[in-house]
Amino acid sequence: MAENTDARLRGLIERIERLEEEKKGLADDIRDVFGEAKAVGYDVKIMRQIVRIRKMKPDDRREGEMLLDTYKSALGID
Predict the structure, then answer these.
(1) Axis crossing angle, helix 44-55 with helix 2-39, rounded to the nearest 10
(2) Domain range list for the chain
């Protein structure tokens, strides 16, 4: 029984390790795309914000925008 448990644990750990490698590869690919965007003149900081905003649910996005507007107004920022 312990061998079966050990083998399963080993298999799970190996899967996690493979997925971590894939994640690193994807992160490298994303970094390359942002580098390409920067090379042609896009503002990467703004692009990252857009990507983050697009991930949000519409209600969450609206709430965040309203709070930002409220804070900006309170601080006299146009």
Answers:
(1) 130
(2) 2-74
